[in-house]
Structure formats: C-alpha cells, structure tokens
Write a structure and sequence with these properties.
The complex is a heterodimer of chains A (348) and B (258). Chain A has 14 helices and 12 strands. With 348 residues, chain A is α/β, with parallel strands linked by helices. In chain A, helix 5 runs parallel beside helix 6 and helix 8 runs parallel beside helix 10. Chain B folds into 2 domains: 108 residues, Fe-S cluster assembly (FSCA) (GMP Synthetase, Chain A, domain 3, 2-Layer Sandwich), CATH 3.30.300; 105 residues, no CATH class. Chain B contains 9 helices and 8 strands. In chain B, the strands form 3 sheets. Chain B has a 3-stranded mixed sheet with strand order 3-4-5. A 3-stranded antiparallel sheet of chain B has the order 6-7-8. The N and C termini of chain B lie far apart (47 Å). The chains are: A alpha/beta (348), B alpha+beta (258). The interface between A and B is large, with 46 and 49 residues.
C-alpha cells in the first residue's frame, strides 16, 4: 500500500516477479552464468547506486529477502510470480513454479502464482499439457508466463502461432487459465528473422479472444510494433517491466515511452512491474508516484498521467485481470501485517 | 601496410543494424591489431544474448569494410560476450555465409538482407522524424515542410537555412540533415537537387493529410531506437566500463528532441 501525502491509499500489485536461484552451484556452465551476468548488468546499470545488490546476493536470495523487499519496504500488497524455467541453463531451473511456490506458501493471501508451458514438451514433458493440468489442479493457476526464447533439445526458440502452441492455448481456455504473460526474449530460431518480432502475438490474440495476452516489457525492444498490435487487439496488454527503471536514469525516455503507451493503449491495459529481482519495487513505486509527464508530451499526445491512471497501472488493472476485489483485499491485508523475524518468514 | 586511421575509418561504416549507429560510436570496438596486411579486430557486444543474427551481420560487415582498405590481405574478426560467439567467429573468419554457419537454424535460401532492410527502414523513419520535428519547432508549416526540395536546404555551420519565402532558419539541424541524406543514399533513394526532401521509404510523396498518422509511427520507431541504444550502451558500461557505470548519456540522445 502506498499512501499519498493527502492520505489516499494506493493498492499495489507487482505484476512480474521471480524467486530465482542462479547461484554458481545451479548454473550449467557458461549459459547459466551468461544469463545471470546479463540480468545483473541490467540491475547495476538501471538501479540507483544505493539500490545495487552484490552479485552473490543477486544470484540467490531468500523467501524472506523477497518478502521484505516487496511487502515491507516495497509498498507491494500483492505480487504475481512468473515462472521462468531455463532447464538448459540451470540444473533445477531458474525460477520454476515449484521454487516460486515457496513464497506462495509463506504468503498465500499476497501471492498470485503463475505457471508456464512450452509447446515443444508435448503431452508428457515437464512443461507439457499434463503438467499444465497438474499445475491448475495443484496451485489453481489463472495465468502462465511464456518465454519464447527458451532453449530446448537443440531448438532455440518457438513461436506463438503454431498448431502446437494453439493446442496449449485451447487447453488454457478449457482450464480457465486466461492470463498469458509473454516475454519475447531473443528467439534464435529462425535465425534469419527479427528475433524480437512480436507479430506472432497478433495471430494468437486474434484467434483466442477469450485469453488476455500481457506483453512484458511492452514489447521492448520493438515498442513501435507492439503499440500497433496492442491498439488493434483489445486483449493485448503491456507490462511495464524494464521501461520503468528508466524513470531514474533517463526520465525523458521513460516519459516518451509512457506517452506512447497511453496514447496507443490507453490507461486500462498497462500493469506495473518491477521484474523483481531485476529491480526492487520500493524506489520504482516512489518515483512513479512522483512522476509527471512533461507538458510538451501531454500536448503532443493528448494524454495525461493522472492520479487515477497511476492507480490503475499500479494495481487496479492487474486486479481486474485476476479477479481481485480490491476493497475486500485491502481490508483483509490490513489485518495481516507482514512480520519477518530472523530466518523464517511468517504472517501474523 | 594499412594505417590504424584507415582501419578506424572503415569501422565507422559498420553499423549495429538495430541501433542505426556505427559500432565505433557505441564503444563496441576493443582492439585493432595490424600485422603487415593482416588486420585483427576484436569487439564486444553488450549482452551475452544479443541477437546472433545482428552480431553475425556486424562481424561480416567488419570483415568486408576492413577488407576493402588498400593493403589489407587478411581480416580476422573476434566478437566477445555472445552466446554463439564461437560459431560466429569460426563462420565469419572462414568466409562462410550465415546459412552455412547455422545450417540447422535457418532455411538454406535465407539471407540476412531482408532483416537488414527492415531495420534500415526504421532508421530512415527515425532520422526523417527528427528532421521534420526540427522544422516544425522552427515554425514551419507542414505544407511548407512537405514542399521542400533538396536544393532548398543549405547547411550553415550547425544550422540549416531554407531557401523559402521568407527565408527560414532551422537551428541545430545540420547533423540531422546529413544523417537523413546518408540513409537515403544507403536506400538508393534519389538525392538530386530537384527531389522532394521528404518522401516515404518507397520514394513516394507524403500527403499533408496523412502526415500526422505517418509521424505517429515514425515517432515511435525513433523512440524505440533511442531507447534500445541507451539500454545497450548502459549494459556495456555496467559490465566492461565500471568507471562509466552511472554515465547515462547516450548517442541515442540525438534522436530525443522534446
């Protein structure tokens, strides 16, 4: 909960978070190291100097660290955990659903746990159709996070608009898994195409109107193509991870990105996300609440970043996607302060 | 024996295709070694996951541009910090094509030129967008901007003078004009005196009624390139230039005019 100077209580959902283990013991050679070193460069470059972690802490942090950074110091009422598997880079995966579930078990009322699938796993693979059904049954997932640049058995990426992927979307519809979060990493196959191309989102979104496709990083590094698609398709949303930390280092860039997104998508299809532990939410929430669009952009785009819009982006939009009754949730959490004592996190 | 200055000039013609910027300006180039006619160029890309197709293009362009310098008999290109660096280094230095280097990952008829063209077009739109905005900021009406011919524009130091009635001064736009014309040449669009200054990437005139919609897209293409450029520079500094860790300036800033 973020409280404004005049006492307004802003409900905050951090819509893209992870509980990862990228420690050297879990790394499978240079790929696992290359992955986390790249993340750490994002973290170091875009965080304010006093918010930079050591690499060792960044590689592996505890459930308690995460609870403190989000729920105690980060204004976050609820977070959505997005599972990223990377089994070819990490022995036990990067943050598969089983690891993320530890935070859900510790803070069941504050955590929305999402699963994932990979069409190359077919029926019975660890990320196949049966595993998806199992995740629904065991965790009641309402969403999945898809990483299309995952390496698997010699294949180095997949597309959303293939018959194999469509079987999984059909299953999602059946199971009531309606929120499809997509991270477009640099898909290496087919190598001769634009590896960050977002065009396949367009096909899937048209063919599955009952699903909502939330494109993380707002399609960056293909913002212009993403905006175009998200304008055409009412069920394509944007997650603000990666764009947000520019608010500190390059506020003008952030302002221009926000103006574009508000112009093309409007205020109702954007979600706040720290991408924890890429960045921590506390400073992002503070800076976002204090941020104002420059007048020249307001005039040129005809948009405003009002308090109401900030409130939607920070929590109300994601609450709508996940069927959260915000008033009731506020009341529930008010009676559930997060207390961290020593090693074991606990809710009281 | 080729000189270092000649090699550096050749490297200035090698672009990061996605960022529409020479690799020399981005700080990618680490070392140039010249041993008689054998030139070795070592460069670093900002992340381990930089798209290998773009990395391949840069390595191949280095090989081609440096290879054209008189006196160069052999070129070795070494890229660092990429998940497929070994394959790329082996392929480019053996003179193999992209499809030959990655037989399992691409259609054998594929080449990278279609991909390159997609990003050359985005670069064109971004550079054009900056120039049009400078002219709007100087007070020109859209109709006057779209009526300009290349011969109407004169460079005066950092500024532009337009031979319009009345004469029009556009401050600080000279570099933007040159960058735009450079891209027109790369796309083989006409740059002769009587050519309209602003056309679509297909060389067609832009109608005044369509300009707003046209600029809406080119504006986001411009922002996207600037954003990615600053991100890539920042990632490179965070890993390899700790002293510039919190230096947030970017060559992408020249695309940011507010």
């Amino acid at each position: 909960m973020y409280r404004t100077a005049d006492g307004r209580e802003i409900f905050v959902i951090d819509a893209h978070t992870h509980l990862w283990d990228a420690s050297p013991e879990n790394q499978r050679g240079k790929l696992g190291k290359g992955w986390i070193d790249c993340f750490y460069a994002y973290h170091k470059n875009l965080s304010p100097p006093d918010k930079v972690w050591t690499l060792e802490h960044y590689e592996r942090y505890s459930v308690e660290d995460m609870a403190r950074d989000l729920f105690v110091e980060g204004y976050v009422d609820m977070c959505i955990l997005q599972s990223t598997n990377l089994f070819e880079f990490y022995h036990t995966g990067f943050n598969p659903i089983e690891r993320n579930a530890q935070l859900k078990e510790a803070f069941p009322e504050r955590v929305i746990l999402n699963g994932s699938f990979d069409p190359r796993h077919g029926e019975d693979g660890p990320l196949g159709l049966n595993a998806l059904r199992q995740a629904k049954q065991q965790y009641g997932i309402q969403g999945v996070k898809l990483y299309t640049a995952e390496w698997h058995n010699g294949s180095r990426g997949w597309k959303l608009n293939t018959p194999e992927a469509y079987r999984f979307f059909e299953e999602c519809e059946k199971l009531g898994i309606t929120n499809i979060h997509i991270h477009k990493g640099p898909t290496i196959w087919p190598l001769d195409r634009d590896s960050f191309d977002v065009a396949d989102v367009d096909y899937a979104a048209t063919d599955f109107p009952g699903l909502t496709f939330i494109i993380e990083h707002c399609g960056l590094p293909r913002l212009e193509d993403f905006c175009w698609i998200a304008t055409q398709e009412t069920n394509v949303w944007g997650g603000l991870a990666v764009a947000l930390p520019f608010i500190h280092s390059r506020p003008r860039y952030f302002a221009e990105v926000m103006a574009n997104l508000l112009y093309w998508l409007g205020p109702d299809k954007l979600t706040f996300a720290s991408d924890y532990a890429l960045w921590t939410p506390g400073w992002l929430v503070e800076k976002f609440m204090a941020f104002e669009l420059p007048e020249d952009l307001e005039a040129e785009f005809g948009v405003k970043l009002t308090m109401e819009t900030k409130e939607k982006i920070l929590g109300l939009n994601a609450a709508r996607l996940y069927g959260i009754d915000v008033a009731a949730k506020k009341e529930q959490l008010r009676n559930m302060p997060v207390v961290l004592d020593g090693a074991a996190p606990a809710t009281v | 024996m080729p000189t270092l200055a000649e090699i550096n000039r050749a490297l200035n013609e090698v672009y990061d295709p996605e960022l529409d910027t020479p690799i020399t300006e981005l700080g990618f180039v680490n070392e140039v070694q010249i041993a008689d006619g054998h030139v070795t160029v070592t460069y670093t890309v900002p992340t381990f996951w930089c798209a290998p197709n773009f990395v391949f293009m840069m390595s191949q362009d280095i090989r081609d541009e440096v290879g054209r310098v008189p006196g160069v008999t052999q070129v070795t290109v070494i890229v660092r910090n990429n998940c497929l660096e070994d394959e790329i280094n082996r392929g480019v230095n053996a003179g193999r094509s992209f499809a030959e280097t990655f037989p399992a990952d691409v259609d054998q008829n594929a080449d990278l030129e279609a991909l390159r063209h997609t990003f050359t077009v985005k670069g064109f739109l971004a550079r054009q967008d900056v120039l049009i905005r400078r002219m709007r900021q100087a007070g020109l009406a859209d109709s006057a901007i779209l009526a300009l011919r290349i011969s109407d524009v004169m460079v005066q130091g950092d500024d532009l003078f337009l031979q319009t009635t009345p004469l029009q001064w556009v401050p600080l736009a000279a570099a933007d004009l040159l960058r735009y014309l450079h891209k027109r040449r790369r796309l083989q669009l006409p740059v002769s005196a009587d050519t309209p200054l602003f056309t679509t990437v297909d060389g067609q005139p832009i109608a005044e009624a369509e300009l707003a919609a046209y600029l809406r897209y080119s504006r986001s293409a411009r922002l996207n390139i600037a954003f990615n450029t600053s991100l890539c520079e920042g990632l490179l500094r965070a890993q390899f230039f700790p002293e510039r860790q919190h230096d947030y300036s970017s060559v992408g800033d020249r695309l940011m005019i507010g």
